[in-house]
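Researcher: Quick one. two chains, 558 residues in total.
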Amino acid sequence: MARKWNVRTEVLGVLLGILWIAPFYLMFANSFKTKKEIFSNTVSLPEGLNIANYTEAFRELDFLNTLMNSLFITIASVSLIVVCSAMAAYSLSRAKSRLSTVLLLTFIAAMLIPFQSVMIPLVTVFGQFEMLNRAGLIFMYLGFGASLSIFLYHGALNNISRSLDEAATVDGANRFQVFWYIIFPMLKPITVTVAILNIIWIWNDYLLPSLVINTPGSETIPLKMFFFFGEYTTQWHLALAGLALAILPVIIFYFFAQRAIIKGVSDGAVK
Amino acid sequence: MMRTRDLSYWLFLAPVLLALTLVVIVPMLLGVYYSFTSWNGIVTGSFVGLENYIALFKDERFLASLWFTTKFSIVSVILINIIGLSLALIVTSKIKTSNLLRTTFFMPNLIGGLILGFIWQFIFVKVFASVGQMIGSESMQTWLATTETGFWGLVILMSWQLAGYIMVIYIAYLEGLPKEVMEAAQLDCMNAFQRFRFIVFPLVAPAFTVSMFLTLSNTFKLYDQNLSLTAGGPYNSTEMVAMEIFKTAFMQNEFAYAQAKAVIFFAIVAVVALFQVYLNKRREVEM
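Model:
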């Protein structure tokens, strides 16, 4: 028995959808207005498409360079997290012993530690070794991102039969070959989940980069946005154009990968 | 078979063990040590015992931020879960815009808290003011200028952002419900409320624990949105614990004292998390 189309729920849903999208509408609509237009009316559509706001915000944000910085940090960190945590989880799932259990529990327990509780010593120690730079930042992301990733990979690896490893070993493959050619390709679904979860938080992270990379020219989008916004709070037309620019890459990413993203977030939370 | 004494076992583990040790474990242990000293970031300082901890329990600003964070977290967790579950029930019912609505409700979660806070600052400060002027409402023109509107501003922002995230979790559990059960209930003339109360609710109960914990952990540790929406103002009255610790450390340069606050912060977070693990285990035993 198929359920009937639920009109009342549909209307309620659409109204809520409009409410949810309203902040983005207000941001985009006002980002095309002049300062005077925003002063007189914030709710209406813009009178014309005032591109000048965007060109100025683009220049002030040094947008291409900032975007490249964000892309570099995110891609490098997420690749490192994927490769290293998959290998670590492989070790922990294939060598069953008390040591492996203790190590896994250590990784899980580390997830409980809030960033603020380690932030001060972390910055001091890395500062003493001249590691407050991009390399240091990427290494820190590995430390903070590894726990959840190992946990997710470990769960997936337990569902892959060990007879596969053994068959490949009999055929003369060494440990690295077994992992990279046989096991890692089978982990693709969980790799997508791990990558998406890490991309979302690293791309948007503000606090850690603000403490680690604060030299001009190397800022990521959230970092640059913070300084930009501080300068332009009284000039909303420019501030909003900057915010719209900052959001654009995420919207494009979401448009192409929404199914994988929602599935990844759901799997990451429920498992 | 891989053994723990194999070289490859350690080679595979080496990068993450090194990173976790240097980035989390060593700073955590050092942090606990520093919290018992008078360290200020430059001079290591002497051992002062429990002095920092005694001081922070008399620190009105810290206690105020702790209280504000607790109030904010409780209100937000309740609202986010009610809204998130409602959204999940809407998009899993028989409607045509289901996929479009899921995409819409989830969208804010992909954007950084800092940027979301700035967008809402515009809405509360400019849009609310101009709408308030149009309809002649005095109170709408002073949003974020008072402690109360700052509080509700943060609650609205976080509900709008996290409801879609929590919705995704509830959907995962709701779609696991067997269709036959729902149909049988409908045949037995149960109305929508009865179906929800007696069938849906007990079956999605595990989702509550997961969602409560996720929202609590997200709201209690909030920093970015707090910084970009209210920056703690007016007069530090909307300052949450994470921000208070940051300011103590990097604006007042009281590293050891800030670290003592950070240790207390960790203890609270850990107790709440362990309590959640305990609840989960107990439910598993019951089932």
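Chain B has a mean pLDDT of 89.
Researcher: Thanks, that's what I needed.
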